[in-house]
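ugh ok fine here u go
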Amino acid sequence: MDSNYKPYDHVASARRIRDYLTGTQGSYEEVNALPDRDKLTFSNGFYANCSAIFVDIRGSSQLPDHYKRPRLARIYRAYLSELVAIFNGEPNTREINIAGDATWAVINTPLKSDIDDVFSLGARANSMAQILNYEMKKASYEHPIKVGIGMSWGRALMIKAGYSGSGINDVVYMGDVVNEAAKLANYGNSQWGVPAVVTSTDFHGNLNEHNRGLLTYESTRKCYTGSVISKAMDAWIDENCK
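structure:
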């Protein structure tokens, strides 16, 4: 979010803090699906079950050892652009965020079939990484990337946070669902034998029988993992990238 200068007033700040902490105004509504962000004010919020997907590059801190800044910027732009395109192609997506080399989205999933749609986003993200690596190799980028993809389902509180009256604000999702997806993504592709796609047990339990069968339970981590890809994208890769 852009900054717009306004002198800081500590007296007004103390009053705002007091109002936020002890004020009785505001409501936090139970809903079946997360609403559009324009429904939010600085005094309300919405509780709902939803899904989160988090995609992160493995070993990103080592990439500057292999690529100078202009080439590194090209990799990041290609990677982030296509992840956003994948997430934005799901009509139930409520929020897309970029945080460094990670991209995550919150998706409305009031129906169990909606959770299967989120699972398809993970499969597409995994296949997109394969296409990116193929194109990188063709353009003489010698070191491929690896991604971890985490998916979680659970309860979130959606609120508007920022400086009231400044125009500087954002939507915050409070709850374990995004944090859990981030932790699962951090495990994906983290070591030999660990596939890219990792889901929580609750997310897995809501998938259809076919999708559940694509994943394997890891008792030590209490999660499910799998080398899940998009069939359509895989067919395109077979035809165009090999």
